[in-house]
Write a structure and sequence with these properties.
Shape: globular
Oligomer: single chain
CATH architecture of the largest domain: Sandwich
Number of helices: 3
Distance between the termini: 56 Å
Helix content: 10-25%
Radius of gyration: 18 Å
Order of helices and strands: HEHEEEEEEEEEEH
């Protein structure tokens, strides 16, 4: 798109398809059509997206990211000093994600979002958070004991589910 032309955001959203159930493992092919570049801007671009679900972790090494919620709601989670900082955002709110801060989105009910995103963007699905038995959230990563326990519980749960005999 030309930088010197007006962009109708509603019209651009009407061209998107809704991606239901986004996960950190969602492929580019599965997400195609739910995200769009509206315009190049400085060292990155202005993007829109329409989805529900949970994004992977990402960070931007060349600058801050501007996030605006155009419809729906999301929880934007920043990882600072290995602690999650959660911000609930609703329609009409903006948030500036600082440079070099890992962050992700939790949007189970759906969100329409516009971002001004610097490039490059680094993505990771390695960092995971889980709720411990006492209700607190703990950071886990592949190879950590907490991650191994979580993976083991998931495997046991999947195994038990496979044993259920249909009636």
């Amino acid at each position: 798109m030309s930088k010197s032309a007006a962009i109708n955001i509603d019209k651009e959203f009407s061209k998107l398809s809704f991606l239901q159930g986004r996960t950190p493992e969602t492929t580019n092919e599965e997400a195609e059509g739910a995200f769009a570049l509206l315009s190049e801007y400085r060292d990155g671009g202005i993007y829109i997206a329409h989805y529900s679900g949970f994004s992977e972790w990402e960070k931007h090494s060349s600058g801050d990211e501007f996030v605006q919620i155009l419809d729906g709601k999301t929880t934007l989670i920043l990882l600072e000093k290995n602690q999650e900082q959660r911000s609930n955002l609703i329609k009409g709110e903006i948030f500036i994600v600082p440079k070099n801060i890992w962050h992700r989105f939790e949007s189970p009910d759906g969100v329409k979002v516009m971002t001004i995103t610097p490039q490059p963007t680094e993505h990771s699905i390695s960092y995971k958070t889980s709720t411990t038995l006492d209700g607190s959230r703990q950071l886990a990563w592949p190879g950590s004991p907490f991650f191994a326990k979580k993976q083991w519980r998931k495997k046991v749960s999947d195994l038990l589910r496979s044993w259920v005999i249909p009636r």
